[in-house]
User: What shape does this take?
Amino acid sequence: MNIEDLLKQKSEWLRGIGPDSDIVVSSRIRLARNLRGYPFTHWGGDDEKAEIIEKIVTVCEKISRLKGALFLRINEISKVDRQFLVERHLMSREFGAEPEHKMLIISSDEVMSVMVNEEDHLRIQTMKSGFDLKNAWNIIDAFDEALAKELDFAYHDEFGYLTACPTNVGTGMRASVMLHLPSLVLTKQIDKILQAIAKLSLTTRGLYGEGTEASGNFFQISNQVTLGRSESELIEHISGMIGQVIEHERNARNALLEKNEARLKDRVWRAFGILKSSRIITSSETIDLLSSVRLGCDLNILPGMNTELLNELFIITQPAHLQKLEGKKLTPEERDLKRAQIIRERLNI
Amino acid sequence: MNIEDLLKQKSEWLRGIGPDSDIVVSSRIRLARNLRGYPFTHWGGDDEKAEIIEKIVTVCEKISRLKGALFLRINEISKVDRQFLVERHLMSREFGAEPEHKMLIISSDEVMSVMVNEEDHLRIQTMKSGFDLKNAWNIIDAFDEALAKELDFAYHDEFGYLTACPTNVGTGMRASVMLHLPSLVLTKQIDKILQAIAKLSLTTRGLYGEGTEASGNFFQISNQVTLGRSESELIEHISGMIGQVIEHERNARNALLEKNEARLKDRVWRAFGILKSSRIITSSETIDLLSSVRLGCDLNILPGMNTELLNELFIITQPAHLQKLEGKKLTPEERDLKRAQIIRERLNI
Assistant: This one.
């Protein structure tokens, strides 16, 4: 397997299936782990980092969940490839920004990925489509156990897993759910809801995690607390809260359909019409229009449209994906043309 | 023939044919005439106005050009019907606003219309599609001669035809051409051109004549001077000037195609996409989008699109037309829905 193979396949989390997939795009869990006896990545020397990579790769190669996985040394791949992996949510922006002594391991179905020498020695992530934190937890927990058999993790009996940043100490777990909340935005209830969530120790972020703005009405909600509770308790807590957000969004959708059906349909159909017609389109306009079309799809306003295709468009219309699809570097202007072309090709079916 | 028949037919001037029909929608000539021995309309008594109507109707009924024509007493038709006739450019707004003692005569092909007791006793108009003032002149001149055989027009050997407003004295003729100048607007040359035109004794107006704003990049150019030159000289003068405007617009279109083809195509296709998709659309947005689609049609960007259909959409999406098509009064909100529906039905073919 190589990077080009990723381009040809659809990540599992883009399939638009799973519980509440009309509102929840994907569920993600990541664990932060460090090897005992080594300094945290930022303090480690080159030799130590190289040793850590070697140790982890050796173990991972033996784990059956990673059969056929892709092992990538980040300093050996191009800038476009790094951006491509960020766009696919397989690694963090920061991880690609300083590529030396960094290794990324991706399972062949893209459900699992492992960053070696990120802020922590290991950042393990699982992504599933729909609202499915429990399944994601089962997968990552089994994987974590398999690793723990071969690797000696830095663990403190009182504090739990030790991590580079104190906010991750304890379980080292962050559970995030990507929600599509267009109706809460349209009915101006979103701020109130996000404020309530913040009080319950949950944080909200944009499409690409920490420091990114919410765009296209997508919101990533995750736990802030990692200490003092078990993983299952944390997952139960966040799942309960998110269940309520989902209910609010569903109520708002019904209210819009009841009170303002024509205007809602107009918004959906116009977005669809522009996407099917435009010859030049920016990334940000694309996300906004796809958000409206997705809402239309979820409310059966657009017959024959499917979430998987829309999710795919969200991903492949991003700058690095476009350049990989075209097989060469593209200026921003060329990307706006190519983006419009690809969207037309996929939607005019 | 009755008003409902008009709704079913397409006016000749909407056919999108004739010289330079990629830029010129229609050519129109109107003549102002008054009967000798009667005060001008604004000063005339009810009996005098009634007498004038009777005289003119008697004559018109005998003229072969008006065989099968529609004779309408404006005070006997509904407000919506009056607005409908204004939207079809068959009578002036002012004519409908004070409906007493007013008669409108419309030839069955809508090429000729006669307003009785407008500002002048007679306002005769001919409209032809494309840039065709000479043909329009031949038609109206023959009609005027036929009328003059039976009616005694107020005429002064030195000044020519006498009219209620001094600006019409002389020939009593106004020749207007409706031009679609989107590229001169896009390239910001339009103001310079309109200023040049104003210096040459021509005036520019919007879609509905005096006092209306230019919308949808449509400009009506007509002569200001009616005195001291023959009709043919006036027509030759305005035709020469308009020929130059057409050339400027054509150059601007070529320049846009050369320098900015993708952006131009994007504008055209988006407009087309929105028109084919929207569920709610205002009259003003419709005109703007149809203008872009018309440009795309004229530049062969939109294959299979035809000017006649677009011209028809310009007309039938207006408030009174929508209400007549629906067969009942519609609120502005209902019209926005109906307008979107009709546009979709006609464009999704």
User: Anything to note?
Assistant: The beta strands of chain B are 24-33, 70-73, 103-106, 112-116, 122-129, 155-156, 160-161, 173-180, 202-205, 218-223.
